[in-house]
Amino acid sequence: MDLTQGTPQEKNARAKKMMLWFGIISLIMSFMGWTSAFIVSSSRPDWLKDFQIPNAFIISTVIIVLSSITFILAKKALKQGNKQGTTIMLLATLVLGITFIAFQIRGFQEIINLGYHFTGPSSNVTMSYIYLIAVVHILHVVAGLISLLVVIYNHFKQKYNAENMLGFELAATFWHFIDILWVYLLLFLYIVG
After folding, report:
1. Low-confidence residues of the chain, pLDDT below 70?
2. Residues 6+ positions from 44 with CB-CB distance below 8 Å
3. What is the DSSP secondary-structure string of 124-171?
4. Contacts of 19 (CB under 8 A, 6+ apart)
5. Distance CA 182, CA 176 (A)
6. Which pLDDT belongs to residue 3?
7. Structure pTM?
């Protein structure tokens, strides 16, 4: 397929999708670097070997997976011209995204209650990595929530329909990426941590 072919609207859509994928690939590389550093650092003598991931992180994983499902259902409803169904599922995705962050904060509180901090005398390299990985992911969820708010706003302005879904699809792709990324990170911390 010749990327220079098509209407200006088709070229614009391809360019935006390509830019999103470049961003996603750079994020994947960043998180792979951090998880690789985590593996290398785990051979240090001061590495915390018996740390248990807080239950709040497990609950947040279920929540973010559910949020991807509601986003899929929102897209399906939009394709069917079901405005009310789209609205309900988009708002459900928003609530689940916010709830995910709330449970992440609860997980950090559990870690702090165990006496582990990001820096200072009660910190260690293991906890610093966990804080770094989880906090950077939360920042990306916040970015996903902002894009979701834009989608909700545009949906209420009736800018999307079955033939015009570019912004909706871009936000959904990013949302599903941060969902899959968190599942990977949690499994990584369970298996390697």
Report:
1. 1-4, 193
2. 125
3. -HHHHHHHHHHHHHHHHHHHHHHHHHHHHHHHHTT--BTTB-HHHHHH
4. none
5. 10
6. 55
7. 0.89
